[in-house]
Design goal:
The chain is α+β, with helices and mostly antiparallel strands.
Length: 331
Amino acid sequence: MVLDSIDSQHKKEFRIPLPLEVEEFRRGQLYSVAEASKNETGGGEGAEFVKQYDFFDDPSILPGKTLSGTYTYKIYRLKSKAPWVLQKIFPSEAFEIHEESWNAYPYCKTLLTVNLLCVVYNFLARFAYVTSRPLQNPGYMGSNFSLIIESIHLPDYGCSDNPLNAPEKREIIYLDICDDIILGKCQYNPDTDPKLFISERTGRGRLKPDWMYSTTPVRCYKQIICIHEKRLKTEISENCSFMTIMCCYKLVTVHFKWTGLSGFVEKTIQKQYSKIFTRFHRDAFCWIDYWIDLNEDELREFEEKIAVQLLKQLAEPEKRGATLDDRPIID
């Protein structure tokens, strides 16, 4: 197994329409990220908040733009959520992911990295006896493996041509939060099924199969999204003054540098994001009664409360959440 100068990047663009306004989802996103972290943390695994602070007039995040927002650094430990075979092969360090995020809503950028070099040498040490003891974690090696998620939230149905300035040659995937097929049986939850849920605060919910072009009060766009055929037909109406549906555009770029495995790893990772994004946005919509009335100070207080709670849950014996291959977590 040899590390060399192989440099591969795999890009996919996901488009997720939501029955929300862009400014509403600013609150929904913040609440749901924290709540999802709580639901996936326990037994020494899950999310750990390391630091968070505001940034101002930063020109380095998005070329040609000066952005302000909130920076967050978290560590995810996810061994029990990985496929069972990988758990038996690789050391725990392989499942420790470092996440940096820059939330300049409606634009957001997330960088995920892993200490790949340490993982490789630990693997060789364990199975090929290259050295007498595994290397200690030297910190994550972003030059070998990284995953970048860029997001933009716009008041449309997913019809913007290229809002993230992605390469013309890319796969575009439309996700419908009402589609249960994307989720496995272990991840399906009737409490967060948009087809069953009704919001007491807003009256929204029990979405129908045609919800993306029948939402009231104004149909600014009429679209038919054929998820499995990956086609989109758009008919623009005359009245476009109100938007009751928004779209979250996400460009996922996987960068992997490892001879013989780059294509396999990139495709495996990209395959999971249809499930991850669908589940997150289903949850966010069905949690609307918890976040719709929160102001900025209340959201920041909620995030701080969750950060403290995560530390407690990490120390508890019970593992929480779902696995990527749709099976119960095995201790």
